[in-house]
Specification:
- This protein has one domain.
- Helix content is 32%, strand content 27%.
- The protein is built from 3 helices and 5 strands, in the order ββααβββα.
- It has a 5-stranded antiparallel sheet with strand order 1-2-3-4-5, with no helix packed on it.
Amino acid sequence: MELIKTYAGSKQLKVWQYNHADELNFVKNFRYINQSIAIRLCEYLKASQQKVSVEECYDSQSGWRGQHFYIDKEDLSLNGYCFSSTSVEMFLEQKGF
């Protein structure tokens, strides 16, 4: 897990990057992701030599905080607030993994 950027401003939103060796960090930081799916995701990242970019987001009207979860240019969180085991599993199935 590597901190890529911190945006200026009052919220100090961050962008993190994860690679295939970050299984424990996935499980720790994304407790709502099933561990077996996190393992599959790490295997996919290793096989495809890709990384995950996680970009924090904030909705000022509702006060909600979320995270965009990008692999390549695809946002698995849909809108920053809907990231789940299901979205990761659907992504992996789309990729035939």
